[in-house]
Write a structure and sequence with these properties.
alpha/beta, five-stranded mixed β-sheet, 10 helices, globular
Length: 320
């Protein structure tokens, strides 16, 4: 009998679900819209629907699934399987998701912070394979991450450790979505890069960024990189600044967690070559030398599937 698990990555906009084998191979995957505004009952219905859908597509029976792993946005209580009140899942207050899914599928279930799950997946099946002290960072709309210490996921007292995007790098900095000021996320995320571009345009800086926006006229990080590639002076300055802020944050990560390897994923890595060298030089300049001498900083390899692979990895850890 082939051993299989289900991994599910719950986000504010989509639910991605897969059937995966022990080798980290995704047999089938489905994606549904979360429609988070409809509330927890409707979303949970779609979660259950997506699991049945992927089982059917994989041409297997429910009884063939050994366990289910679910990655969810924090905050949560992973030990109790409770979703506490994530900002992008309105109405999810103390929702016992693990118990609800267990009542439906009657298999072992693990619920974990989505960034932690992704770190575990990248550590088991991606760029961190075989590395005992490993860190995964995702940089896109925000900045999140997970840390593996001596082969074990660092979870913290309430399961919400490694909220790295909300470490402060300037106590007088811009307001972050979390309510704090000067968070790393407020300086180095894709959202922050786009904000810096908008602020410059508003202040009268000449740039072609405003001429290459999307149909709705929204400036995104990708537009800044495109303009920089075309030689735009302001855009090139912004990309240089992005590398600087990423390097400052990585220095903090190296000093705080002292990993052997940091893997970076998320949309920003599509432009890896444009900021990598500057990012590394700033990190090496600012971190303790002992913490960066053997440190590898690499591009994560699991790509957009890191969430479901990480969730499935949670499931494997329950039954192996």
């Amino acid at each position: 009998m082939v051993k299989l698990v289900v991994g599910l990555d719950l986000g504010g906009t989509k639910i991605a679900t897969c059937v995966m084998n022990e080798d980290g191979e995704i047999l089938k995957k489905v994606t549904l819209s979360t429609l988070a505004h409809e509330g927890p009952d409707a979303v949970i219905g779609r979660i259950i629907e997506s699991i049945y859908d992927v089982i059917r597509l994989a041409n297997i029976n429910k009884e063939d699934i050994l366990a289910i792993g679910v990655g969810v946005p924090g905050p949560l209580d992973s030990e109790k399987g409770l979703i506490k009140n994530p900002p992008n899942l309105p109405g999810w207050v103390e929702v016992p998701l693990r118990d609800i899914l267990y009542n439906e599928f009657k298999v072992p279930l693990a619920i974990e912070n989505d960034a932690n799950a992704a770190a575990l997946g990248e550590n088991f099946y991606g760029s961190g394979k075989g590395i005992k002290n490993f860190m995964y960072i995702t940089i896109s709309t925000g900045i999140g991450g997970g840390v593996v210490v001596n082969g074990k996921l660092l979870k913290g007292a309430s399961g919400n450790a490694a909220e790295i995007g909300h470490t402060t790098i300037n106590f007088e900095g811009p307001l972050c979505g979390c309510g704090n000021r000067g968070c790393w996320e407020a300086y180095a995320s894709g959202t922050a890069l786009a904000r810096f571009a908008r602020e410059g345009i508003k202040n009268g800086i000449k740039t072609i960024i405003k001429d290459i926006v999307d149909r709705e006229g929204h400036i995104k990080a990708e537009h800044v990189f495109t303009a920089a590639k075309q030689g735009d002076k302001f855009a090139k300055e912004l990309v240089d600044m992005e590398g600087f802020y990423l390097g400052v944050g990585l220095a903090n990560m190296a000093n705080s967690f002292n990993p052997n390897c940091i893997a970076i994923g998320g949309g920003i890595t599509n432009q890896w070559d444009m900021f990598y060298e500057h990012m590394i030089s700033i990190m090496q300049e600012r971190a303790l030398k002992a913490n960066v001498e053997g440190l590898k900083v690499v591009k994560a390899t699991l790509g957009p599937d890191v969430g479901v692979i990480g969730a499935a990895t949670l499931a494997w850890r329950l039954v192996q």
